[in-house]
Amino acid sequence: MNASLPVPAIVGRADLDAIAAWVTPGASVLDLGCGEGVLLKYLQESREVRGYGIEISDANVLACVKNSVNVIQSDLEAGLAGFDAGSFDFVILSQTLQAMRHTEEIIMEMLRVGRQGIVSFPNFGYWPQRLQIMRGHMPLSDVLPYLWYNTPNVHLCTLSDFEDFCATHGVRILERIVMQGDRRISFAPNLRASVAVYRFEKA
């Protein structure tokens, strides 16, 4: 069930708005690949959450400190061994799943460390991207802005791919929001949505 308190919009990131609406007031949160700490700062101010971010970039870690966000500099590919099981209410991975080399491991670690996981990622099944592939080119779009030779994305997936993964890995999907821009999509989402957001737990 969505949290009851209203949450003002995070400018430019509709997926972060969806994530923030799922985080209950006063919850403990671990934000993986937290960037400049925008989401955590936002949740601290609007939801009074307690939490940490994990980030590898020196510049982003410095930005987190300036944003008064607790941050740990670490490589997510190394796992979350420094955190005890059940340490957080929510573990969040926004727009980073597709850049992870060890996808299975990070999702399982999210559910070891947290009661629930939340991810957002670009939907590779979005119809303009399918069309670009049919025309012989790797997709290039607002949510996939990199060229094939300089992209950080290594494991792109569709909505159906992610849901199949959950079904075969003991992961129960609690809620799903799919969108194109800031507009939510209900009809033919795997074809018409560019971004997906999922909330899930251990089955």
Compact summary:
By secondary structure, this protein is of the alpha/beta class. It has helices spanning 14-22, 38-47, 58-66, 103-113, 127-134, 159-168, 189-192; strands at residues 28-32, 50-55, 71-73, 88-94, 114-122, 171-180, 183-184, 195-202.
Would you kindly provide a written description of the structure presented here, covering whatever features stand out?
- The protein is an alpha/beta fold.
- It has helices spanning about 15-20, 40-45, 60-65, 105-115, 125-135, 160-170, 190, and strands at about 30, 50-55, 70-75, 90-95, 115-120, 170-180, 185, 195-200.
- The protein has an 8-stranded mixed sheet, with helices on both faces.
Q: Radius of gyration, rounded?
A: 16 Å
| Ends apart, CA distance between termini | 17 Å
Residues in helices, as a percent range: 25-40%
Molecular shape: globular
Given this structure, which CATH class is correct? Alpha Beta
Annotated CATH topology: Rossmann fold
Secondary-structure element pattern, one letter each: HEHEHEEHEHHEEHE
Looking at this structure, what is the CATH superfamily? Answer: Vaccinia Virus protein VP39
Please count the beta strands (DSSP E, at least 2 residues each): 8
